[in-house]
Amino acid sequence: MTSEPGSFARATIVERKPEIIRRVMADNAYPPEIVAALEAFRDEIAHGVIAPLHEDAPDVDFWNAHQAQHAGKTWLDVPWYFAETYFYRRLLEATRYFQPGPWRDVDPFAPQKRAQEAAAIAQLATVWPAIEHLPPDERFVLLLHSALWGNRADLSNFTVKESAHRGLEAHTERSNLLIDDTEAVLAFFGQRIEWMKRIFSSNPLKSVQSVDTVAFINDNVGADSLFDLALADFLLTHGWAQRVIFYLKNQPFFVSDAMPEDIRLVIQQLQAAPEPTVAALGHRLHNALLPASYSLLLTTDPFWTSCLSFWDLPPALRDDLARADLRILKGDVNYRRLLDDRHWPHHTPIEAADAAFPRPYLVLRTLKGEIMVHLQPGQAESLTAADPTWLINGKRGIVQFVRNQTTNLHESPLIFS
Strand 326-330 vs strand 211-217: parallel, antiparallel, or unpaired? Predict the structure, then answer.
């Protein structure tokens, strides 16, 4: 709850949200009426009660139904996740994102996103040639960890001062992993390759792939999604997967969350990079998006920018996610949604609190919110004694692989048509 004294949730509303509004006004040449709407919104957060949406847009009934559950309350007396998501929807109303006119579909966070992307690509160019020459298993682990630590780059979180570690520096961070299932993830792909080879050994015409589909539930632009793309490229070019799906935001959300247009812009910038190996990466990703291949799919759903947790996944979206062989959940917000943003005891097994999310799934998360499970008894207390802000400062992370407990690669019966 945003009402919890001394909590990061409360600081989010008191400090971070007004600063986000200030930055949006500074970055965009808005007319006086939009500036006035943003200033009124900032005053409401500081002194008023939560108001409903008043514009004409397809999702207004959904949001106002949820806002009505908190009618008469201030921004400091509601569930944290609702407050954060509704903030971004109200900000889009103030900036006329959905309304006819010059500001329709104009991302208020675009200037910040473009700067983040440019810096990430420049950093990638310094290490990519060396990464490309690593043996496959070593390269996979490096890209996996880079995709994790790149998640530190979150433009909505001003408390994370440490920049994202990139590229070849990722291996130095293993000591900061509270849960490290890297070897289990590597074994998942390796075991499936060997398993499929045995199955198809009598038919050499069959193409042997590790998995059919890997689904990323993406988070931020910049180093975060850039290494998601690099990891996707690895899986596709090395035959570890036939298809990769990116589940992205359908509208601006949490400042730096990635939308399909953000990903396409990054791929274009990679293609234009002066470093030949970086440009080649961009060309491979571009080709993967083409209809002739469709091995990389960019998709959206209104659920991803709603106030709902994974406990409320729409059946059609749940079925779609369940069709993938592996789901990769990026970032703090997806972790919060997985666990319904509740104060679970830190030693709670994640399987007991994860909304029966389709398995197997992999969580790549740097800690920037006050929620954490699956630790050893006493581990959280030791961390608090050593570092009181360990839950929110982005220093630590997890590579957590949650297996499908009903499936054994070596024993499950298979029927092939």
Answer: parallel
pLDDT at 152: 82
Q: Is 101 contained in some domain?
A: no
Sheet holding 397-402, edge to edge: 177-180, 397-402, 361-366, 326-330, 211-217, 241-248, 296-300
264, 296 contact by CB (below 8 A): no
Number of structural domains (the chain) is: 2
Neighbours of 245 (CB within 10 A): 22
User: Which of 59, 64, 58, 96 is closest to 82 using CA atoms?
Assistant: 64
Query: Which amino acid, one-letter code, is at 154?
Result: D
d(C-alpha 245, C-alpha 186), whole Å? 20
What is residue 405's predicted lDDT score, i.e. its pLDDT?
Answer: 55
What integer pLDDT is reported at residue 199 of this predicted model?
43
- Give the whole-angstrom CA distance, residue 121 versus residue 278: 9
Closest CA to 215 of 360, 397, 314, 339: 360
Asked whether residue 101 carries a pLDDT value surpassing 90, the answer given is yes
Instruction: List for the chain the helix, strand, coil content (%; round to 5).
Output: 50, 10, 40
Look at residue 337 and tell me whether its pLDDT is greater than 60.
yes
| 103 domain residue, yes or no | no
Least confident of 102-116, 120-134, 149-163, 381-395: 149-163
Q: How far is CA 72 from the centre of its chain?
A: 32
Q: Are 25 and 35 in contact (CB under 8 A)?
A: yes
173-184, pLDDT tens digit by residue? 888 999 999 999
- Residue-wise pLDDT for 274-296, tens only, equals 999 999 999 999 999 999 889 99
Q: What are the structure tokens assigned to 35, written together?
A: 């500036």
Is the Cβ–Cβ distance between 363 and 329 less than 8 Å? yes
In a domain, 367, yes or no: yes
| Whether the predicted pLDDT of 201 surpasses 70 | no
The residue range of the domain holding 392 is 110-402
Whether 158 shows a pLDDT value over 80: the answer reads no
End-to-end CA distance of the chain: 52
Residue 259's CATH number: 3.40.50.10880
CATH of the domain at 74: 1.20.930.60
Same domain, 80 and 167: no
Question: Based on the domain organization, do 168 and 270 belong to the same domain?
Answer: yes
